[in-house]
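// run 5 | inverse folding | seed 20
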């Protein structure tokens, strides 16, 4: 796993010497797990290639080259793809920015959107043509004659020749490679049914024995599955695009003569000086050289409170400056920035994803050659037995018809559609069909704290008496809210929100001045006041009463932050007016969710970017035995990887950019609704309400959908297992074979639709 550099590494220039070189390739023509294996083998055979990770989800290959001489060039990589039967293109890094910013894959992604729309239209057209053909299988049972042969041919031909063309090239490639895949199975089955129907209609005039509906239905159903896979594949790129949007396109650079100018981020170089205005996103990794303030680093660390910045402190690209201007010297740009490393971690993780369709692909790889061999043996056996060649061919075609993957093509998409719909009704948005595969067997849940188990924003829990009887709690709150009136610091917003909730009018403050890292001061009336940390009070000669100090110590041990208010009159004795206990409170249903997961035999651990003491305190309140604090994106991803290495099936739950690499590498990734776009794009599943209470139900629907997929596959292959030997022996005619395939499809669909009855367990009633 690529590690993110800490601030001690920021001044060290990136050393390219000896680094492992990566090449990312766009691969066209992959349709199943067999294709993934072929592409990977072809690339790994090249001298100088260390490894090749091929993803059917993204249609990309990440090739890692051995350091030093002897590395294959781009032409050699593309030639290897061509020899394997696929087309490819090198995905280049965007200028000097390491692919962050103007993504070079945008044009390809736009073309995929166009292709998806075209495929969707073709599926609709194919369905319109296939419905009458399939419908006649029903009305024939009531004595209604089928459509005339010429009408069936007229309906089936556009589907077979027009829509079915998509399967021919990959099927031919598999045939040349001597392997079986779903495309070859589709081609054999559909063309066998179509060809037999044409022959019977022209040569024998057996209109009752035509099988155009089998060919059309298989083509449409499999194309529908491909359309769904394409939508899921495009969604995986959303995480990268959302991460790219976190870095600004321009930055304000200070020139040698002291003037400032706006420049493109790609033009920044190490050593440039940035002028960072309040509220701006930081354009590159840098180190503060002038000014004091704070930065919101929650997108990288998960820390809910801004981090104080002073000369010498590090800044990360994509984070947000606070309310004070800063000057900073650039120490890392482009692909060396922290943000770019997060991008690469997500890309690495996504490249290793396997789709739920892999079950069908693995079976098809064996099933296809077996069916072909049985069909050939059927022809030979019947001819040896003295049968006429037309009868021998019909027996062999019957084998291919009953082996036609109609139910196989429907088994996975039908269960996914039903499971996705049932989950959506419960508030669980399944972004990737692979989630149903990945969510089975989870035994470890790693859950982010801020914004996931907690509300993600501090609020005022209570006030501490400062020992000044003349100042009531409401008056102290009014003064604190007045001092924080102009600040966007999360603690300031919490104090203002508390004043608004209590209908307390903020005091009028003049001469307000921010003291970075300490607090704020200003005049209320003619009296100077301070609001800030315990140290800020000590600097003014204010000692906390023993009772107040003890209460504050207890609150801080529980993970809260305490700020103090004091009046500091000129020439008079300072007076402590009170303290304010603020904390990011746990969500109301977080403890219930933890108990429900534990009740299912799942170990729950907390991963947080907050201080370790804070993480442990919140975990203890929620009943979580183990908590890790101070975890950056790389540490979270490494924790997931380590748990998987130990044999755990890991569910990662988070809501921030800092969770994206861990979400991408987990077996099952879940984002809490209301979180960042990056987290939701990197996750398999998004909970549509800001609540962890749906986590147990998420695992339930994954398990049930996976069960339905496997039941459907068993059902579909069961028909074949029984029917193929009977067809080879001549005990089935093509009519019954077609009817059996139609019945298997109906059975698969009906079984999948049973998921519509699913409802999540009600945690409030204690159902786990």
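// decoded
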């Amino acid at each position: 796993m690529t590690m993110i550099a800490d601030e001690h590494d920021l001044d060290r220039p990136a050393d390219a010497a000896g680094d492992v070189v990566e090449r990312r390739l766009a691969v066209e023509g992959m349709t199943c797990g067999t294709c993934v294996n072929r592409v990977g083998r072809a690339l790994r055979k090249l001298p100088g290639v260390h490894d090749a990770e091929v993803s059917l989800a993204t249609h990309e290959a990440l090739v890692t080259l051995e350091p030093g001489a002897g590395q294959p060039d781009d032409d050699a990589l593309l030639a290897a793809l061509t020899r394997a039967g696929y087309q490819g293109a090198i995905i280049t890094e965007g200028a000097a920015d390491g692919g962050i910013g103007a993504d070079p894959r945008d044009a390809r992604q736009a073309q995929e959107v166009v292709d998806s729309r075209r495929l969707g239209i073709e599926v609709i057209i194919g369905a319109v043509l296939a419905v009458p053909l399939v419908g006649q299988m029903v009305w024939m049972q009531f004595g209604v004659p089928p459509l005339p042969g010429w009408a069936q041919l007229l309906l089936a031909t556009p589907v077979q020749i027009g829509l079915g063309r998509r399967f021919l090239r990959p099927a031919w490639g598999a045939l040349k490679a001597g392997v079986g895949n779903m495309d070859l199975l589709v081609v054999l089955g559909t063309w066998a049914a179509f060809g037999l129907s044409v022959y019977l209609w022209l040569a024998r005039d057996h209109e009752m024995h035509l099988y155009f509906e089998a060919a059309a239905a298989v083509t449409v159903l499999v194309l529908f599955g491909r359309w769904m896979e394409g939508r899921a594949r495009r969604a995986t790129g959303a995480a990268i695009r959302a991460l790219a949007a976190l870095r600004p396109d321009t930055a304000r650079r200070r020139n040698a003569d002291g003037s400032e100018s706006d420049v493109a981020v790609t033009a920044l170089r190490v050593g440039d000086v940035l002028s960072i205005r309040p509220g701006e996103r930081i354009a590159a990794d840098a180190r503060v050289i002038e000014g004091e303030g704070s930065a919101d680093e929650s997108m990288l660390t998960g820390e809910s409170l801004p981090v104080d910045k002073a000369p010498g402190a590090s800044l990360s690209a994509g984070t947000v400056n606070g309310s004070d201007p800063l000057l900073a010297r650039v120490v890392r740009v482009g692909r060396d920035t922290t943000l770019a490393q997060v991008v690469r971690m997500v890309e690495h993780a996504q490249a290793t994803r396997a789709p739920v369709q892999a079950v069908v692909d693995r079976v098809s790889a064996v099933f296809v050659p077996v069916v072909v061999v049985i069909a050939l043996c059927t022809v030979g056996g019947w001819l040896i037995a003295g049968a006429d060649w037309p009868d021998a061919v019909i027996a062999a075609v019957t084998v291919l018809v009953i082996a036609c993957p109609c139910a196989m093509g429907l088994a996975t998409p039908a269960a996914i559609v039903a499971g996705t719909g049932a989950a959506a009704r419960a508030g669980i948005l399944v972004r990737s069909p692979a989630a149903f595969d990945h969510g089975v067997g989870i035994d470890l849940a790693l859950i982010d704290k801020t914004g996931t188990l907690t509300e993600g924003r501090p609020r005022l829990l209570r006030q501490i008496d400062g020992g000044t009887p003349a100042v009531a709690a409401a008056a102290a709150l009014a003064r604190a809210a007045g001092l924080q009136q102009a600040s966007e610091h999360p603690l300031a917003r919490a104090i203002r929100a508390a004043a608004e909730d209590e209908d307390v009018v903020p005091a009028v403050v003049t001469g307000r001045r921010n003291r970075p890292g300490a607090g704020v001061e200003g005049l209320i009336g003619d009296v100077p006041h301070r609001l800030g940390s315990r140290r800020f009070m000590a600097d003014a000669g204010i000692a906390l009463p023993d009772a107040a100090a003890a209460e504050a110590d207890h609150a801080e041990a529980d993970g809260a932050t305490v700020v103090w208010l004091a009046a500091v009159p000129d020439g008079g004795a300072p007076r402590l007016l009170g303290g304010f206990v603020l904390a990011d409170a746990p969500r109301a249903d977080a403890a219930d969710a933890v108990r429900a997961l534990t009740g299912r035999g799942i170990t729950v651990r907390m991963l947080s970017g907050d201080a370790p003491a804070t993480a442990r305190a919140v975990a203890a309140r929620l009943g979580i035995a183990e908590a890790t604090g101070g975890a950056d994106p790389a540490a979270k991803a490494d924790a997931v990887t380590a748990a998987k290495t130990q044999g755990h099936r890991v569910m990662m739950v988070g809501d921030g950019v800092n969770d994206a690499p861990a979400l991408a590498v987990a077996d099952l990734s879940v984002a809490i609704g209301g979180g960042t776009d990056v987290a939701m794009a990197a996750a398999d599943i998004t909970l549509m309400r800001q609540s962890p209470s749906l986590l147990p139900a998420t695992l339930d629907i994954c398990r049930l959908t996976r069960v339905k997929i496997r039941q459907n596959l068993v059902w579909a292959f069961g028909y074949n297992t029984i029917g193929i030997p009977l067809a080879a022996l001549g005990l089935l005619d093509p009519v019954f074979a077609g009817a059996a395939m139609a019945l298997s499809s109906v059975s698969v669909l009906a079984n999948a639709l049973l998921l519509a009855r699913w409802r999540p367990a009600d945690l409030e009633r204690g159902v786990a």
